[in-house]
Amino acid sequence: MARAVVELFRPGKRDNELHRQIITFSASHDYRTVRIYGYYPVIVEKKDMQYYRHPIHEFNFTASEGNENWTAYRFTKDIYDLWMPAHL
């Protein structure tokens, strides 16, 4: 997904604006933990990009007496409600 965003910026020669900026997110989970990551490109040479994953948050939603149950939902909702409109 991060590569697709970079490819959208390349024809306008604006791909350097994405250098080291988190441009996509993912959340992975199993039966007890959730991990949220951000992905960003790094310009190595003029046309070459490398992509990296940055851990944003990891939590166990079975611990803390349920205090973290809605964290992944709130984070995802904030991406759609706050982050995306500011970056479109």
Key phrases:
88 residues, alpha+beta, 2 helices, 3-stranded antiparallel beta sheet
List the topology elements.
Blueprint: H1 2-9, E1 24-29, E2 33-43, E3 49-60, H2 71-87
Which term fits the overall shape? elongated
Query: Which stretches are poorly predicted, pLDDT < 50 over at least 5 residues?
Result: none
| Strand composition percent | 25-35%
Structural class: alpha+beta
Main sheet: strand order: 1-2-3
Helix content: 25-40%
Average pLDDT score: 86
Order of helices and strands: HEEEH
Total count of helical runs of at least 4 residues = 2
- Number of DSSP strand runs: 3
Termini gap: 16 Å
Pfam families: DUF7924 (PF25545)
Protein name: DUF7924 domain-containing protein
InterPro entries: DUF7924 (IPR057684)
Kindly describe this structure:
- This is DUF7924 domain-containing protein.
- Residues 2-88 form the DUF7924 domain.
- InterPro entries: DUF7924.
- The chain is α+β, with helices and mostly antiparallel strands.
- Helix content is 28%, strand content 33%.
- It contains two helices and three strands; from the N terminus they run H-E-E-E-H.
- It has helices spanning 2-9, 71-87; strands at residues 24-29, 33-43, 49-60.
- The protein has a three-stranded antiparallel sheet with strand order 1-2-3.
- Strand 1 and strand 2 form a beta hairpin.
- The longest helix is centred in the C-terminal third of the chain and has 17 residues, at 71-87.
- The protein is elongated, with a radius of gyration of 16 Å.
- The two termini are 16 Å apart.
